[in-house]
Amino acid sequence: MAASDYPKPSVTVDVVIITLRAEELQVLLVKRDLAPYKGRWAVPGGFVHLDESLETAARRELHEETGVADVYLEQLYTFGDPGRDPRGRVISVAYIALVPAPLTVEAGSDAREARWWSLSKLPPLAFDHDKMVQLALTRLRYKIEYSAVGFRLLPECFTLSELQKAYEIILGEPLDKRNFRRRIMEAEVIEPTDDIRAGEGRPARLYRFRRDAVAEVKARRLFP
Amino acid sequence: MAASDYPKPSVTVDVVIITLRAEELQVLLVKRDLAPYKGRWAVPGGFVHLDESLETAARRELHEETGVADVYLEQLYTFGDPGRDPRGRVISVAYIALVPAPLTVEAGSDAREARWWSLSKLPPLAFDHDKMVQLALTRLRYKIEYSAVGFRLLPECFTLSELQKAYEIILGEPLDKRNFRRRIMEAEVIEPTDDIRAGEGRPARLYRFRRDAVAEVKARRLFP
DNA sequence: TCAAAAGTGTTTGTGGTACACCCATGG
DNA sequence: CCATGGGTGTACCACAAACACTTTTGA
Q: How far apart are alpha carbons A89 and A99 in whole angstroms?
């Protein structure tokens, strides 16, 4: 019953890379230039090297596609149904990555075509990647409510209005300005910077996320 | 870049089987009778067959160890650091299973020794299984607060006192009897049966979990 | 001086928490 | 009739939600 007695599946990592662009949530997809599903859009990913951890593999893929390094990355789910890949048994460990808003991707190291897609208007996807993207979205919506991952979709500095707007987009509902500001200040997860952003109308103070913030809240209990 | 160009890791599933026994949370461990870590206790698991899904493999392991079939099973996390198994690269997809309270295990199909261990008094574990068990416990505590998975640790019929006791054990804190009863009835997740359990003192009505119950509550928002 | 966005408190309602006594049965 | 666990209602407090006007700048 040693490991080598069994035929082995292949193992890949796929990274659902999500950002906030053009007032909506978008996901980065690549066009496959090889069979199977040649020409279809897919979540970027690749085989795990034998000497790297799963997270390292995910960061490598992420870096190859976007050039960014220090971003939020979390394991999402492992997909392993037989038959999900026509090449044979392939088990895929999916990750979710959140990258800051104004990221111009273009020019991954591959020649593959890559572009952002609105999460509400996705093309047909290769493999079981539609399930993967849906799960990532569910998890993000869920997690954003009780933790501070939302900040990982914003640039380092932002105004309170931009922050509120981001939350409205992610949650899909409008929020009250005064309640939002009060609560976010009470939560002590952001701190003011010395900078001001001018634009149309009155200039706004810029804030940044406090890295030391304890940004999790206990869930409301179903029955205490 | 075909799948076969890469050397492949082995893939296993491990199942953290949790139950409620002797007024505490316990986990089922097996004593390894082969190297590596021969003689150490470990989370039950095994290699994934090429023609079965990950969940099927997990249910197979679960059934081999406990004989039970229809229990709560959920994917927990995939552990894949190189070096976590001295035999070579082994990636393990961990599942968490909740089995109903009065389960007498004994006599798995293997000859391996298996027994329940209190989660607060674990022996040294093989591989990275200590991390695995800790993660399972964290997830259970967390999940129990906003969903109804707690019922999966109870037999089909139970009294309200038994249910409250179970919640107190899982959450690790005492609960108020009247508040608990009011809230659980309002949640409409259980229904009374026609049966009564007699014992010492006044007999208690038996309840059962409503399978149709929508038993998730929205998390309290960090900032709305 | 006007347009545009930033910023700022109070009131009201709901839900969470704390708390003590009577009831039904078996021995 | 007594011991044991089962079952029930109310009062207070804290936090969430609703709501409108003043301020600062650039054009």
A: 31
More confident residue, B18 or B107: B18
| Nearest residue, CB atoms, A93 vs list B52, B78, B221 | B78
User: From the CA of A35, how many Å to the nearest CA of chain B?
Assistant: 9
d(CA B129, CA B14): 9
User: Does the structure show a pLDDT above 90 at B199?
Assistant: no
The answer to whether the Cα torsion of A149, A154, A156, A161 is positive or negative is negative
Count Cβ atoms within 10 A of the Cβ of residue A218 and give its class: 0-12 exposed, 13-18 middle, 19 or more buried. exposed
Interface contacts A/B by beta carbons within 8 Å: 150
Cβ of residue A161 lies below 7 Å from strand C: yes
Q: What angle do CA A179, A180, A183 make, to 5 degrees?
A: 80
Are A116 and A21 within 8 A, CB to CB?
Answer: yes
Q: Does at least one atom of strand C sit less than 7 Å from the CB of A177? A: yes
CB of B124 nearer than 7 A to strand D: no
Residues A161, B121: Cα–Cα separation, whole Å:
50
Residues on chain B touching A51 (C-beta within 8 angstroms): 82
Most confident of the following: A95-104, A110-119, A161-170 = A161-170
Among A89, A218, A224, beta carbon nearest to B183: A224
Cα nearest neighbour of B58 on chain A: A80
Question: How many angstroms separate the CA atoms of B75 and B56, rounded?
Answer: 11
What domains does chain A contain, in order, with CATH numbers?
A: 9-146 (3.90.79.10), 155-209 (1.10.10.10)
What 3 state SS string does chain A have?
Answer: CCHHHCCCCEEEEEEEEEEEECCEEEEEEEECCCCCCCCCEECCEEECCCCCCHHHHHHHHHHHHHCCCCCEEEEEEEECCCCCCCCCCEEEEEEEEECCCCCCCCCCCCCCCEEEEECCCCCCECCCHHHHHHHHHHHHHHHHHHECHHHHHCCCEEEHHHHHHHHHHHHCCCCCHHHHHHHHHHCCCEEEEEEEECCCCCCEEEEEECCCCCCECCCCCCCC
Could you tell me the pLDDT band of residue B151, with boundaries at 50, 70 and 90? confident
